[in-house]
Amino acid sequence: DGLKRGSDVLEAQGLRTNNLDTGGQGSRTKLEGEAVVVDIAPGKTLFALLRMANGTSQDESLAVMSMKAMDPAYNHDRKLSAQRIVSGDGITSPSQVASMDYPLLVTFGDNTDPTSVQRVDPANLAASFGPGIRLKRITVEVTDDDVTTGIEKRLRWLDHLEQYRTQRTNPFTSTLPNEIGYLRRR
Question: Which of 23, 26, 94, 166 has minimal Cβ neighbours within 10 Å of its Cβ?
Answer without folding.
Answer: 23
